[in-house]
Amino acid sequence: MERTNNIETAAKYIQEGKLVAFPTETVYGLGANGLNPMAVAKIFELKERPSFDPLILHIASLDQLKELIKTTDERVYQLAEKFWPGPLTMVLPKSERVPDLVTSGLPTVGIRMPANPIALELISQSGCPIAAPSANKFGRISPTTAAHVQKQLPDVDYILDGGKTTVGIESTIIRLTDKGFQILRNGIITREELETVLPCDEQSAIESMEAPGMLKSHYSPRKKLLLADDTANWQADLSKAGLISFTGKLENGFYKVIRISQHEELKDYAVNMFEAMHTFEDDDSIELIIAEPVPETGIGIAIMDRLRKAEYDWRK
Ligand code: TXA
Ligand code: MG
């Protein structure tokens, strides 16, 4: 495995059907030629991801979009105009060109144009849409640095190192209905921002299999993680615990504290939360991770979604 910043070499690898981990503004992706089923199959294998969990395609231009979808819905272009390049994934009816392996047999495909110059250049030079899930083993913590990728996926063919990602949590995923949009996964682009373009359709509740990303356990460190408001649960030895601290109010007694934001900014929580989980996961002196919860409004919804999924396994 190579880890450098040579986009030309990485693009050649993509063309040859190999796997390239690359930075986006959200998290690192594990990329392959999205039109080559053999290459896409390698993603599922290396990530140990079940084949029923579909991948999203990353594009660098709207011309590419047109070839991948079977809709001329004007709303798609309104949303693209406002939010692309950026951390928004749209689930849309797929064209024949998209291999079934990418979508796990679904008639829809998730597509986004990432706002990271390295990612855009890689896609352009590769000359194809790049299929990419987050570059972690299935169910584990998402990577926000090249080192995180190397830790979980040492066998990837190539890692493009673009430094730490600037958003830190995965894209907001939406689909369109007759009435407007529905959020399938929360992210840094909030419902309120989307509502400046389209109404939110609250009618039909989301069935779990239609949004596989809504699996209850996800993003889990290999150590017990609890939210600090589950007071009943953490009568623990704090001398072996790490705290992900937001307000600074809970910091006494912990073995190690990571202050996630200097000025209680939710954006900083998103940017730094996975890195904090990685740091505590890698620290042999730590047995328990405690995370300070945040109010569930705006970006706080996406942050609490990630924390609850990291916690889920341990609450039974
Ligand atoms: O920010 C991101 O979205 C990152 C970066 C690398 O772009 N990617 C990412 O991919 O988070 P992944 O595979 O870890 O999460 C994408 C989620 C999956 O949970 C998948 O179930 C859902 O999107 N998804 C993909 N295609 C779908 C579809 N056609 N319908 C419903 N959900 C879909
Ligand atoms: Mg993921």
TrEMBL record:
<keyword id="KW-0808">Transferase</keyword>
<feature type="domain" description="YrdC-like">
    <location>
        <begin position="4"/>
        <end position="189"/>
    </location>
</feature>
<protein>
    <recommendedName>
        <fullName>Threonylcarbamoyl-AMP synthase</fullName>
        <ecNumber>2.7.7.87</ecNumber>
    </recommendedName>
</protein>
<comment type="function">
    <text>Required for the formation of a threonylcarbamoyl group on adenosine at position 37 (t(6)A37) in tRNAs that read codons beginning with adenine.</text>
</comment>
<keyword id="KW-0819">tRNA processing</keyword>
<keyword id="KW-0547">Nucleotide-binding</keyword>
<keyword id="KW-0963">Cytoplasm</keyword>
<dbReference type="Pfam" id="PF03481">
    <property type="entry name" value="Sua5_C"/>
</dbReference>
<dbReference type="InterPro" id="IPR038385">
    <property type="entry name" value="Sua5/YwlC_C"/>
</dbReference>
<comment type="similarity">
    <text>Belongs to the SUA5 family.</text>
</comment>
<keyword id="KW-0548">Nucleotidyltransferase</keyword>
<keyword id="KW-0067">ATP-binding</keyword>
<dbReference type="InterPro" id="IPR005145">
    <property type="entry name" value="Sua5_C"/>
</dbReference>
<dbReference type="InterPro" id="IPR010923">
    <property type="entry name" value="T(6)A37_SUA5"/>
</dbReference>
<dbReference type="InterPro" id="IPR050156">
    <property type="entry name" value="TC-AMP_synthase_SUA5"/>
</dbReference>
<dbReference type="InterPro" id="IPR017945">
    <property type="entry name" value="DHBP_synth_RibB-like_a/b_dom"/>
</dbReference>
<dbReference type="InterPro" id="IPR006070">
    <property type="entry name" value="Sua5-like_dom"/>
</dbReference>
<dbReference type="Pfam" id="PF01300">
    <property type="entry name" value="Sua5_yciO_yrdC"/>
</dbReference>
